[in-house]
Amino acid sequence: MKLSFTTLGCPDWELDLIIRRAAEYGFDAVDFRGVAGEMNIYKLPAFAESARQTRDEIRAAGLEVSCFSSSVKVFSRDTIESQLLEIEAYAKLCALFETPYIRVFGGSIKGTEREEAVQIMVRHFHELGAVAKQYGAKLLLETHDDWTSCGDVLAVMEQVDPEAVGVLWDLHHPYRMAGEQPEDTWATLGRWIQYTHVKDSIVKPDSGRPFQYCLAGEGDVPLESMYRLLHRSGYEGYYTLEWEKKWHPDLQEADIAFPQYVDYMRKLD
Asked: What is the dihedral of CA 228, 229, 234, 239, to 10 degrees?
């Protein structure tokens, strides 16, 4: 079992602390989604002029970079020039760090019919995927926002280059937000799923929210059965904790959630 975490869970940590704690807690890799307040990490010196030094420090700690998580939203009615520039910046980092994946979002399609939205997605993935592929990287569409349902993702994946585009299965959202059973998600998208995000939650009707995130294994998302499904299906990718402390400051600190996650997941293996 290969474990990683996104840096959403430790939004205030500097790079050296991220590396040190990742190794200390028993992770195998880090998924970069911002460092110390800067979400576009390619703008930071540590991932620009000092990128080789950063790569070497991560390797020296016995770690890998499992994914670079971009902010790119593939669906857009406007030009995608900015998306192309961001993908190229991350793709160059992928080549240097020997990281295979760049996470992208589908985004909101509000005001657009689904069939048209699918064709826009396919067209944009053709352009964006070609850029990533030049550097040996692959874009991963996360099951998120208006692209949470496996059927909606399938409509896109059947029309794109499988060497340039894959799927990131956020184990939480299709189950919690779309009411999908994990077996159905896997049966529909399994051939494209190459990466996962792991998080748990519990429904609290009186809380004013549709759900509340909680530590792994303390909610009612069937994480154990999801892991068993992935394992017996031959999945060999990362199980990446997405602890959304950046967006939900009330969540417990990373120095509690991160080691707890490693302990929980290792006991499943």
From this structure: -70
Alpha-carbon distance of 62 to 33, in angstroms, equals 20
Taking only the tens place, the pLDDT of each residue in 231-258 is 999 999 999 999 999 999 999 999 999 9
Task: Output the CA torsion 145→106→180→171 (10° steps).
Answer: -90
Mean pLDDT within 113-139: 98
**Which residues are 35's β-sheet partners?**
38
Could you say which architecture CATH assigns to the domain 2-268?
Answer: Alpha-Beta Barrel (3.20)
State how far the Cα of 95 lies from the Cα of 121, in Å rounded to an integer: 25
Residue 84 burial (CB count, 10 A): 16
Tell me how far CA of residue 110 lies from CA of 107, 210, 217, in angstroms.
9, 21, 34
pLDDT at 120: 98
Domain boundaries, the chain: 2-268
- How would you class 146 by CB atoms within 10 Å of its CB: exposed for 0-12, middle for 13-18, buried for 19 or more? middle
Nearest in space to 39 (alpha carbons), one of 1, 64, 71: 71
Q: CA 33, 39, 196 angle in degrees (round to 5)?
A: 20
Look up the pTM and report it.
0.96
CA dist 183 and 141 (Å) reads 19
